[in-house]
Amino acid sequence: MNAKPKFAMYWAASCGGCEIAVLNTHEKILDVDANFDIVFWPVAMDAKYKDVEAMEDDSILLTLFNGGIRNDENERLAKLLRRKSKILVAFGSCACEGCIPGLANLSPVGDIVYTAFNTITTDNPNEIYPRTTVDVPEGELHIPTLSKVVRPLEQVVDVDYFMPGCPPESHQVAAVIDLVIDVIKGKAELPPKGSVIGVGNSTVCDECPRTRNVKMVKEFKRIQDIAPADPTLCILEQGVPCNGPATRSGCNARCPQAGAQCIGCYGPAEGVIDYGARLITAFASVIDANTPEEIEHILDGIPDPTGQVYRFNLAGSLMKATKSAWEKA
Ligand code: SF4
Ligand code: SF4
Fold first, then answer.
1. Whether residue 239 has its Cβ less than 6 Å from ligand 1
2. CB-CB neighbours of 326 under 10 Å
3. Considering only CA atoms, which of 224, 226, 242 is closest in space to residue 234?
4. Fold of the domain spanning 6-101+150-184
5. What residues does 8 pair with on adjacent strands?
6. What integer best gives the mean pLDDT of the chain?
7. What is the pTM assigned to this prediction?
8. Which ligand is nearest to the CA of 254?
9. Given ligand 1 and candidates 207, 217, 234, which is best to mutate, with the most ligand atoms within 8 Å of its CB?
10. What percent of the chain is modeled with pLDDT above 90?
11. Which atom of ligand 2 approaches the CA of 256 most closely?
């Protein structure tokens, strides 16, 4: 009997939601088991890094890598899995564009650690902070060293495919699993290297059923402040910043369909070079103002502009991080 192709999944700087999205494919997960030999998946099975190191280069057919690169362990595993894998997929928003952990790129890493160990609920009178090495009777222990900034996978190793989403929708994960199984069976071909997979080719607006009337807004508000919201009219036209115009389709406009604005978890739409810049342009296009002061006043209605336009994408944006995050440790 021919050996089954090998499958791996790894998480770096992420929350674990991408792993849940894979498990949420329900019985489809049995197809993964039936068609692949799962050799490395720390969240689901016990396997050691040295087991991966002992494998031949290119011996894993498919690795889904979720999470951004936040420390030297993430980077080591990214390079190791790149070497061992024929197909490396940046799986989920963190691996594709940094996602929420990437917002840490607004601050120097030293400030982040200081803040984490000095909150109101943290009792740290002796100013104790994590050390990367510590001596214990059994020897020297090492914990990973934080890097200056969070980097998407592509900024560290060559990536074959990108599958965005926070997390990727389970129906899209299932479709990609089906595609890879068909490729293994010779019934389909892989898309060109570098493709974004498990998504649509347009924007969330294009799959959103809400009506657009090109209505201009005089102020931006939070969604809870427009009650009762019109359930059929475009949320942006009701004055709530909705990220649909710059965001890649593929989720079936899940949030606007449920009555909430899109926050951009599927990342930049096809052809968008900088997500935040595209979004600001989209917001500007619905502002009803005649003077710069009026424009400024309306934009002040967005309480956290960076979080609004770069919530998922700061580490993958043209800017990537603030100057102080790059320069200070
Ligand atoms: S801006 Fe939001 S609510 Fe309006 S059409 Fe686009 S996705 Fe739908
Ligand atoms: S509507 Fe926007 S935030 Fe909601 S799932 Fe789709 S891409 Fe993500």
1. no
2. 12
3. 242
4. Rossmann fold (3.40.50)
5. 40, 63
6. 93
7. 0.93
8. 2
9. 234
10. 83
11. 1
